[in-house]
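[job 4471] stage=fold_predict status=RUNNING
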Amino acid sequence: MIENIKSTSVQKTLHQVERNVQFFKDIKAGSLGSSAVGATYRCRVPLASPLIITSDYVLSKLFLNGDSKLGITDGEKPSILRSMNFLDREVDSLLTHKTSNVERERARKCIAQAFSTSNLTRTWPHIQAVLTKQFELLRGIAVRKEVIDVKSTIVLFFMRTLSRGAFGVEFTDDGTESEHNINGLEYLQAMDTTARESAREAINPFRKYMFWEDGLQQNTKAVKVLRRMAVKILRLHQAQKATLTESKLFTILDHIAHHSYGKDIARLTDVTIFGFAGIDTTAYTFCFLLMEMAKNPLCKAKLQQELASFMPARPYKASQFTAENDKELLSAIANCEYLSFCVKEILRLWPVVAGGSSRELLEDIEYNGMLLPKGSLVVAQYYSMFRERWIDEPLRFNPERWSESNPQLPQLKEMNIPFSIGRRSCIGQNMALFQLKIVAA
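[job 4471] inference complete, writing structure tokens
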């Protein structure tokens, strides 16, 4: 029996390898064409609509943003992304609503105000408090010469930053929970479980009916956790607002709570999706930044030299700053040229959404001798796009490529769409850049 199980396992593995080989053969055979800035492929996979993948940024901007001069309409959000509706597959979030949906546009306009420069600046005291605590912990670890899990440390750090600055709610990082806070570890675990299952369902729409699958059963439990926590986050927010005299909205949660949703579940869904989008993405981008700094000591030294001209002396303490010079510090960080180069370069080499942005075409698109038929699912593959061969030394971390002296800069600026572009661009990109620069500095 054991031998039969082993044999079956080997057969499954070989079958999967054969399928993968055939998939890549089909990509090559289904090539639609190429241009000076990228290639476009039609993948022969068993889907209802053609699947097209491109690393061509010019073509990508056509279906992501449209072009009024050429009479091209931007594509629609694919239906397969409804698997990202974590709490209820039938209730769309700001991420999964169709672009033409009136409710999506109303919610986006309302919540977008949370990402204005003035509102982001108001989150600085929360970031400052988390930074102070984190530096104290790191100094203790250094004294004891302990080894830390950098990824987990950074994810937990950005979780606390987002929860306090964007939600105004305390997330713990030690597995505890009280009536006044949220168990951050349980939250992250539930989010990870649900995100993984959503990705599987996007690939296989029939998976949601496979009730015997362990991943699906774990997801059912995780969804209950996330729903309970979303309800609690809103309740804690409401209780906190009741004690404040100021009524002006500034956090993400302020605007979500204030917006008039048709259903309560829709509000809870947006609370959950902002938690998902705001933690891992920024945290892992910062991990990649640390990695490239470690691999490129000359870049690190140059950045440290630039930061040393205005950053406080170590060790960092919140008491070093007052309300009067906070604005001056944040302005200096925002205008730090080499830091901006480093952030742009890390988003090029290690994009937030490496798989890219996808759209369903509402009409035929003709481009460079290619025809992309209406109804196609088209993917702008950022990882490949940002490493295309037309870029000088595309695989090298080189912040200087973003300087005015680089003749490729105009093209790089055109290609630089890590947060997508158009009506479906990332609503939180200002906050992500704000937090990345502050924490890096």
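[job 4471] summary: Confidence is low (pLDDT under 50) at residues 1-8.
[job 4471] exit 0
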